[in-house]
TrEMBL record:
Zn(2+) binds at H15, H161, H165. Pfam families: HlyIII. It comes from Peronospora destructor. It is a multi-pass membrane protein. This is Uncharacterized protein. Keywords: Membrane, Metal-binding, Transmembrane, Transmembrane helix, Zinc. It comes from the Eukaryota.
Amino acid sequence: MASAVICLTCSAVFHLMFVVSRSAFTFLSRLDYAGITILIAGSFYPMIYYSFYCHPWLRSAYLVSISTMAALTFTVALMPIFSTPRFLVARTCIFLALGFFGFVPVTHLVWHFGLFDPHVTVMIGPLLLMGLLYTSGAIIYATKFPERFYPGRFDLWFSSHQLWHICVVAAALVHFANALQQYQWRWNTQCEA
């Protein structure tokens, strides 16, 4: 949840202060993208930590992998060219690619434990919902739907940017609830000898 707080704080600061100057916009947009990267990476940690708790080597390998990919994405997000409008779709695709890495540990869990094992069932539904919300929000944002089809109608309410933020907050709430479920499940489940 800390990653969601960081992301939404960065976003709030950006939206509040970006109008101050061009240099403020440039700096704060990078801060906003860094926050998005932190949110995506942070979304992985509870699932990986609790699901692979009894397999410390795998847990560490996946946590190091996502941390490394997030560090690379974070570095790219700080590049000045990354915040330009012409890189909107590329930016969105980079963030989606980082998020889609989640299929790797989830597939591994399903392969290792089976689809109906508690390791998988405790997190698969909420994880898919979280991914759907994040992905839908990103696609809405990148395609500028609905305002691109109805210019002027969504200038104040329900623009793609607002819909994207709604999806992000909803996904973060799903993530938080699921992290609590995973924690409770892990607390009550022993590792096999």
